[in-house]
Write a structure and sequence with these properties.
alpha/beta, 2,3-Dihydroxybiphenyl 1,2-Dioxygenase, domain 1, ten-stranded mixed β-sheet, 10 strands, Glyas_Bleomycin-R_OHBP_Dase
């Protein structure tokens, strides 16, 4: 079964600068921004529940880039073990992402392929499993459970881009 990319994410040191650069050089935009992403739950692979928002405090910006979504993410604080697992280095691909109906089955499949689970997270209607890239990628993999917010994201971003005048490059993500 083919799993097409939903989005590709990059780590950036300054989100405002990175967004302006993407708008200018790639012609993408506007970006929807989720400042200081908050998790309803965040569970490490060993079952440890993380409640401290500073464990991973980041801001993420999303724009349609052709048939996929571009994510630019700036980390404000991160636990050193998670930073190592995510391989956070400014300018590097942070992760690739795809969407599946059965998140536990896809997570098990990736683990069987040698891509160990890093953590799972829930952001309300958005559920994800992050895996090490193993032998597949030199960066993590983020798998999303299919749901309205994720399945409609590209269409929403593309609609914003249609007729966009280049102003107001970053807009808050509305619930």
């Amino acid at each position: 079964m083919t799993r097409p990319l939903h989005h590709i994410g990059y780590w950036v040191s300054d989100l405002d600068t990175a967004v302006e650069h993407a708008v200018r050089t790639l012609g993408v935009g506007p970006f929807l921004v989720d400042r200081h992403v908050r998790f309803a739950s965040f569970t490490l692979a060993d079952g440890t529940e993380i409640a401290d928002p500073a464990y991973l405090d980041h801001t993420a910006a999303f724009a349609a880039w052709g048939p996929i979504v571009l994510e630019l993410a700036q980390v404000h604080s991160v636990h050193p073990e998670l930073a190592a697992a995510y391989r956070i280095r400014t300018g590097d691909v942070g992760h690739v992402s795809w969407v599946v109906e059965d998140l536990p089955a896809e997570s098990a499949r990736l683990q069987a392929l040698g891509c160990p689970l890093i953590h799972t997270a829930n952001l309300g209607q958005v559920n994800v499993a992050w895996h090490d890239g193993g032998s597949l990628f030199p960066h993590p993999i983020e798998v999303h459970r299919a749901g309205a917010p994720i399945l409609g994201m590209h269409a929403r971003l593309s609609a914003l881009a249609d007729g966009w005048d280049g102003a107001d490059v970053m807009r808050p993500i509305a619930p």
